[in-house]
Write a structure and sequence with these properties.
The protein has 229 residues and is of the alpha+beta class. The chain folds into two domains: 57 residues, no CATH class; 112 residues, no CATH class. Helices cover 41% and strands 14% of the residues. It is built from seven helices and five strands; from the N terminus they run αααααββαβαββ. The protein has a five-stranded mixed β-sheet with strand order 1-2-3-5-4, with helices on one face. A hairpin with a 3-residue loop joins strand 4 and strand 5. Helix 1 runs antiparallel to helix 3 and helix 6 runs parallel beside helix 7. The two termini are 47 Å apart.
Length: 229
Amino acid sequence: MRFFFLLLLIVSGFSWYGSMDGNFAPWAINIKEWNQKLPLPIWAISIGTAVIALLLSIRRAPETTYTPTAPQLKQPTKSPPQSHSPKDDEQALQDHPHRSSDGTDEKWKQDMAADSQKVDFPRGGNIMIDSQKDIPFTLRLPHGTPQSYKDAVVRFAAFISQIPTPKRTAIRFDEGCKKNDHNMVRGVFRKHFHINEMMIRSESNRVDIQFKHMDQRWGTISNIEKDFT
C-alpha cells in the first residue's frame, strides 16, 4: 500500500508538470486533453487517491493463516491424430479461391493497393506503396499550403480507416515536417481512431503513426509486396 501511495505521488507530480501552459510535449498535450475531459485534473485525482491509500494503510487488517495445499496436476489427454488427404486441400482451395496452396491469401492486398491509387488529391499528394517495413501506405505531400496538407491528410485518414488496420502508416512532407503539421495529423486521425490506439511521432520530414492493434489479416508483417526481411 505504501508503494502505491508513493506511485500516486509520482503520477500527480508528473501530471502537474504536464499540465503547465508552457509544456507542449506530445505526452503533455495528452494530459491537457484528459484534464479537459475529467471533472478534476489528473494531478488532483492522484493526490486524493494517494491520501485515501495512506489512510487505508494505517488501518492494518488482521492477518489470516492458511495451510497451503499442493495443486493437483492433471495428466494431459492426447487426442488421436487426424487424417489428412489431398481431397482436403482441394476442398480448401474451392472454399477460398484466392488462397494459394500454402494457405496465404494475397488478392485482398492487391485490391487494397489498387484502391489506394484511386484516392484523389485535388490539391496535391499521392500514396506510395511499401515505402518502408510495416508501412504499406505512405502519403507523400509536395510543397503546398497548410490547408492543402490538411485536405490531403483528411482523404488519406479516411482511406486508412476503411482498410484492415496496418501496423504503421506515415505522411511524408517534402518541405519538412513542422510542429503544426504534427498537431494537424493528430487531430485528423483522431476522428477515425481513438487516441489511445495510436502512437504518433514526428521526424524531420514526416509523421509516423503506429497502431497498437494491427488487424490479424496482415500476419506478422504489414506490407503489400516487398519483403524487408
